[in-house]
Predict the structure.
Amino acid sequence: MLGFLLITMGLPLLFLLVGSFNLAPPGKAALYGVDNWLKAFSDPGTLGALWMSFLLSLIRLIPAMVLAVLFAWLIARTDMPGGRAIEALCWIAYFVPDFPLTLAWILLLDPHFGFLNAVGKSLPFIDGPVFNPYSFWGIVWVHTSTGGIWFKVMLLVPVFRRLGASLEEAARVAGASTTTMLWRVTLPVLSPMILAVAVLSFIRGLQSFNTELLLGTPAGIYVYSTRIYDYLQREPRAYGEATALGSVFLLVLALLLTLYWRYLSGKRGFAVVTGQGYSTLRVKLGRWRYVAFAGCLFYVAVTMGLPMLFLVIGSFMRRYGFFDIPEPFTLVHWQRLFADPIFLESLKNSLIIASVAAVGGILLYSTIAYLLVARRKSVAPVLESLCWIPHILPGILLGLGVLWLFLATPLRAVLYGTVWGIAFALILADSPVTTQAFKAGFLQLGADLEEAARVAGASWGYTYRRILMPLLAPIAAAVGLMNFGSALTSISTPVLLYSHQSRPLSILLLEYSFTGELERGAALGLLITLIIGALMIVGRKFGLQLSGSD
């Protein structure tokens, strides 16, 4: 297993770094030099793209972290009504694909036909468009609304709930107000975890591709991921320059993570869970509790409900964004979508890719998680380090590394441009989350179960299949559905690996958007969103049945 991970995780990274110095086209005899780096960084757009990546990620991180901390505190530490419902809405919003929502924000904010701009122009004191999604601040807004706080709230709410009671109670006894207690006690105590979520979110922001490609390209705004994509869309394809840009970005990420780990190593922090139990006394907001609930609900309604509504409307529009033409609504785009043989082929490809990614991820990473728990002092540290590699590799770089692996090895004849190659890359991308989920499950199982099976003469495979995995079935179902949905919506990883024969639905959605078929793109985006929603409902029912809940 260690050798397998060294090959599957290490080789794409190695080929990515070595390929940046390879001057020969893929498949030809290697010729090494530094010309790729010189060409890439003599282009003024390269440094601008790197700077824009960091600037966008930082600018959208600040308001998103403030809102996420506020949401988590209101849900977990106050008497705000409907906290559980707001938390559930955050989970639902997290699983809604961002690309269809971006299409909906175009319908709302486009300077030529956007609905909100049309409403603004009807006012006497407004002459031109107020909003423009094809801009720096437009990209920041769309990012913040489509996925800016949901992931952070999901991570922070459990941490706020587990905060020990003693420090907050001492602050209350000392006469501190709610604001003072939050600013001087709660936030400093939880600052290591808040910082960890901020760093993780910053890296996730650097990995962003979809929104920048759709909104940034028309405005000439490039980030490193869209710059790599641009290099590989040229004729001939500039593999060397793209790989050099990706390699320098990896070095910058490695430096940031090193500085972050060194910072945390010098922090002792505070104990948030003690033997005195958790704090059950929530902060009383008084008359502001309903205002807080209304504010949270309004934010969710604006950032998720509004674009979802206009995504539905856009999928039935005769011309995307034109509300004032005769008979503006039609079913023709849905009819053409379902009659399109390319759609049917892409649907089949997506189902194959997502199914292989889900099942393959469960089988592979449950085995790795077992080894991590069973062999903690031998190969476990190396295994776990390898499993975390995809976490620091943005999707576009992971796809580029896997592309070099295919092109530079005999795998080219088997996996390059196929659904199996895309599924392979997506299985690698699922490594961190899936492994950690199964690891947590195995740590909860007593060793006596496996020992009893061995005493009875059962082989390891039989024990694993008949005893261990049935006990972990809820976790397997959850991560399987999560990986299925992720594979169904991923664009940045397969965008460099697909061919016309292996095109998945997510890439077809991208092509519809680029060719101006926004009506059909909205229909396809809504269809993908409905599939994800159905998976969530089925997964919840199935998970409750497996866990024995009513």
Remarks:
- Residues 268-278 have pLDDT under 50 and may be disordered.
